[in-house]
Amino acid sequence: MSGSRRHPSRLRYLASRVAVLALATFNPMIAQTASQESVGVDEIVVTARKKEESIMEVPVIVQAITPREMQDLHVSEVDAIGQAAPGLQMNTAYTLAGSTVYLRGIGTSGSSNYIDESVALNIDDFTSSSGLLFRQGLLDVSQIEVLKGPQSLFFGKSTTAGLIAIHSADPSSSWDSKANVGYEFNAQEREVDGYISGPITDDLGIRFAAKYDWREGWMTNPNPDNSNHHLPGGQSSAARLTLKYDGAERRLHVKFKGGFTSDTSDNWFGDLSQNICPPGGTATPFYSQYDDCTANRVVGGAPDVLPYNPNLNFNAFNNASFAVATPLPIYRDGVPYEYTDTALGILSISYDITPGLTLSSVTALEWTNGQEAGASPSPGVDLVDVGASDQSQEFSQELRLISNWQDSWFNFMVGALYNPTTRTDKLDLVIVGAGSLAQLGTYNLYTDSNTRLKSETDGVFGQFTLRPNQHWDLSAGVRYTYVEKHFTSMAVFHNYPALFSPGPPGEDIQNVPENLRSVRETAVTPEVTLRYSPNDDVMTFASYKEGYKGPGFNVDLAAPSFNATNVSPFAGERTEGFEGGIKAELFSRQVALTAVGYRYNYRDLQVAVTDVAAHRSITRNGADARVQGIELTTAYSPQHILGLSLNSYINYNKSYYSAFDFAACYSQQTLAEGCVTTATLAYQNLTGRTLSLAPRWVGFLGGSYKLNPTGRYTATLSAGLTYSSSYLAQNSLQPLSYQGSYVLMNFGLHVGPTDGAWEVALLCRDCTNRYYLTEGVDAGAGTGNATTASSLAYIGRPQEILLQVTVHPWRH
After folding, report:
1. Residue 289: what pLDDT?
2. E strand or H helix at 168, and its extent?
3. Dist. CA 451–CA 457, nearest whole Å
4. Above 90 in pLDDT, residue 14?
5. Over 191-260, what HEC string results?
6. What pLDDT, in 10s, does the model give residues 695-708?
7. What is the C-alpha separation between 239 and 369, in angstroms, rounded?
8. Distance CA 551, CA 558 (A)
């Protein structure tokens, strides 16, 4: 970004970062005197094909994030994974509607309630397409894997762009415990977490982990009369119990994981948005509690909401007026808030029928409940108060029969999935005051919308592998998916039947035709992979894959009634293409190298755009896209410099619309800017344009150096630079959502005894405090001499400086 805030020059940026990295190689002669043995590049085991394989041997484009990397980057929330995996854009600005997750420019806007994710989430072998589950906090995680490209064969629908797999830690073979206390200075955030783990018997282990986090927030509340001066303040807590039984003699393996997460904030998503205005423009009427935003606060300065306007009768940041205007229970006496509670239980069972033949089962039950409320001025009225609640219940049962005959040229996998889900949504709106809506008089309008959506996904899948010799193998598989979604209830109740019809107690589902409130689809997604390994250190592969994401619905929950004009389904999203490359461990495994390429075509891409005429966000098909690029990854751990590890990553990604003739215009887009207006339509042609949130280049350069001169204490220094080229953050490619290229700097210092009994760490994420957009939303017409509308922006969390103290009481 560019703006009024002064930054060091790019040369000074690079020089400072090179200096930090140089520390990683400082005094290598000391390292050579250490007594520990050289091991080269660490082996990383992943489960990208639902079985344990070395990351250098699996024919999948996958990135693994280790616990130490998660600690250094303070990945305490799922959306922070975006900083740990370059090219992955994540935020949770839309709270109850879900998360925004994009990979290579393909993703799902969090503003869409009834849509599956393009990047699915897998937690301990349970895959969910719900964006709400992304809000499950990270607790006691052993590893995170980011699988890139379609993953339908092994993980099912909603993986057209990729999948994020989170593996929580299992019970340890001997008794161990950890207590961790941390303080983050900018958000005044306090963290406490820990675990206790060990064997109960020779076959049964237990692990219990818990976490509590409290923060004031890293943004400033503009209302001086409000006791809460920071956003987003709140607290979160989480706990998980793991039981693992390994009966080797009985050939039975059972694992249960049950956890609960609660996250509460003293704000709602509307408080966190940032206005970006055109030159000479002012804030949009909807956000008129802010003053002139020509300074372009996101681009030009710190991420603080704009100055408080005390002249409004009711103000979103004034708890007292909020409470007077809206005394309903869901608004909690006028205090904005948001909370999400999630419970998840997973039971995994595997039984070795015979040597090399295993039957496995994964049963999961997930429950999510969330609620939020907030307020904002709106055109023509004094205040609009918004309250919402969402509940979802998801059940999943998957069975697999897998062979692993080591000396056979043939192996196979077959399985089936049953996955029903229920989601209930409630939206309350209160409009206060008359404004330009003369027909309301001074009446306060109240509406209450309720919907219930039931979904079911069934699937059968299978794969066989032919291995004629130790160098070649060919795998081919296919998944058949059936998806059904239908609304069982849709109702709106309001207190002004003279203006809106029908009045209470209307059952609006009768006004929506069956074909608009129900949708059914099937999909067949094959996958073929050829792998060649000339020796144990080199592997090459080529794959053809197809992917599928299920259909969804557009539903205007803010409408006074449901009917054929504001409820409509849209079709599923499909992709097909190729990927391949080489993975090699060189120079006695001191160097690990990965070079891969990919090319995928997307059909009926589900794109969320702003319907300016209807003042709402909608999702539509009709777009095709091509995603292609290359990735290069290196890891270097020299045997003659013990304790040194260097890593680099670079991705060139070209993602563009191959066909998108009738995309929605952004508000106030002119003919000269590409918006064609007819008697019934206003559209722009985005064919050939780069997808939003799709930087052409992303990269990472970093390293760590472990200094152990005495053999009793260890100091580890780590540093990293993350780079992103420019991109547009809004789906309609609104020019105001332009994000310039940026570099983020991360740093970590860990000090403690070699046996790990305790450790003190100083961590810095985004040390240069760089602000960057993670989502853009059209905000409506601007004023002044503006010819382009304002844009709302959501930004990634800026600089974090964290001090942590970790103790392992039972470790020796």
Report:
1. 32
2. strand 162-168
3. 20
4. no
5. EEEEEEEEECCCCEEEEEEEEEEEECCCEECCCCCCCCCEECCEEEEEEEEEEEEEECCCCEEEEEEEEE
6. 999 999 999 998 87
7. 17
8. 22
